[in-house]
Amino acid sequence: MKTKHVTHKPLLPGKAMMAAAAAFTVFFGSAGNSWAQKFEGLADTPPMGWNSWNKFACDIDERLIRETADAMVKTGLKDAGYQYVNIDDCWHGQRDANGNIHPDPKRFPSGIKALADYVHGKGLKLGIYSDAGDTTCGGRPGSRGYEYQDARTYASWGIDYVKYDWCNTPLLNAEAAYTTMRDAIAKAGRPMVFSICEWGMSKPWEWAGKVGHLWRTTPDIYNCFDCQFSPGLSTGLGVLRILDKHADANLRKFAGPGRWNDMDMLEVGNGMSEDQDRAHMSIWAMMASPLILGNDLRTMSESTRRILTNPGVIAVNQDKLGVQALRVLADGPLEVYAKPLDGGQWALMFLNRSNQPADIHHDWKKQVLIDDLNQRSVDFKENVYQWSDLWSKKTGDTSRKLEAKLAPHSVLMLRLTGPAKP
Ligand code: GLA
Question: Per the UniProt record, which residue ranges are transmembrane (predicted)?
Fold first, then answer.
């Protein structure tokens, strides 16, 4: 068969052509470049780090980022496993005549490369933020039409993590747009964690495993335990509302090493009570969500620091099986979540959703613990497990009923090891 070569001039010049190409993807989608893949091995356990947005919004500069890196080391967060220092929206200045993006010269006068060198010098990694649309949510230049150029720029700066937002993307197809950025990162050649942030709108869990390492599943977190905030068109969800989206929607089968349901950045240390903060941290750990902190690390209290660095709770989150917990019991305001862990162990979380105290009288022998998805089960009539309370450090075993009082909005989080024969 003969192929006919037709040469023709582009009908649209430069950017207009790209905009048309981007619009095309609306109708035809995109399989991306067949050679391109996301970088594997970057997020075999949920990423841990910090992000500027929850506490500082657009009020950021290079000093904050440097001091946050310093604090991450000094407070023991780095030793506890946190490694990414992520700059969110509003770091941008303008694009130059060649389309290259530059940071805001007033807030980041030394440039992002110098900041990356500083952060790397502390043994940490630097993350940055962009948006699939023409502008970011904060109205700064987005990456639409500049994906390959921006990814190249980030790589040249030494960026390790890219969060990619979804504001101002009318008519764009999310899978296609995020695949374009994945391909751009692959082409830039520097391993960068790719964090998809389109708030669960196009069910990213169904397609994003091949595209990124984590994907937001819900609207933005709002700094409260059990509330919802809906100004205008946007919505912010409190801790329990985000949990419910995960526990109910059965998203857990999509999560695993290298691909995580992202429940959003943490609000621990931003004003909830200590019990609520402990519960928030425990829930994120149980659900194998990325642990990206959202408080001011430079001024946090000792109690916040202890919550964020609890080694037992972090170990549950970072367990190498990478299984997201399932809700195994809902008894009024009292719920129980179970997370199978490596080596036949389990984590169990009793959650008191209510603002009243609740009593736990848990007879282990009355309930077989089953996770069908992972083909794991325990019958406590036949096996005795030791438990240790990851917050209070108390220990016990499953041969006796578990009796405890839970304060309002608090959790009891246990690691179960065993089994021994009764
Ligand atoms: C969106 C994201 C947030 C944050 C802001 C920045 O709302 O979901 O996490 O990045 O944009 O403008």
Answer: none
**Rg of the chain (C-alpha set):** 23
Residue of 50, 137, 166, 195 with the most ligand 1 atoms within 8 Å of its CB, for mutation? 137
Same-domain status, 297 and 337: no
**What is the arithmetic mean of pLDDT over 326-335?**
95
6 contact partners, CB below 8 Å, separation of at least 6: none
Question: Within this chain, do residues 116 and 205 fall inside the same structural domain, yes or no?
Answer: yes
pLDDT for 7 beyond 50? no
Most informative mutation of 197, 199, 217, 292 for ligand 1 (most atoms within 8 A of CB)? 197
What is the full DSSP assignment across 94-126?
A: EE-TT--EEE-TTT-TT-HHHHHHHHHHTT-EE
Structural domain that includes position 402: 326-417
Is residue 12 included in any domain, yes or no?
Answer: no
CA of 79 to the centre of ligand 1 (A): 28
Are both 338 and 298 inside the same structural domain? no
Q: Determine the distance separating the centroid of ligand 1 and the alpha carbon of 87, expressed in angstroms.
A: 11
Q: In terms of DSSP bridges, do strands 334-340 and 402-406 run parallel, antiparallel, or are they unpaired? A: unpaired
Based on the domain organization, do 386 and 255 belong to the same domain? no
Tell me the pLDDT tens digit for each residue of 108-144.
999 999 999 999 999 999 999 999 999 999 999 999 9
- Measured from CB, residues less than 6 Å from any atom of ligand 1 are 53, 88-89, 136-138, 165, 197, 220
Number of structural domains (the chain) is 2
Whether residues 144 and 287 share a domain: the answer is yes
Active-site annotation, residues: 165, 220
Whose tokens are 């059965």? That residue is 250
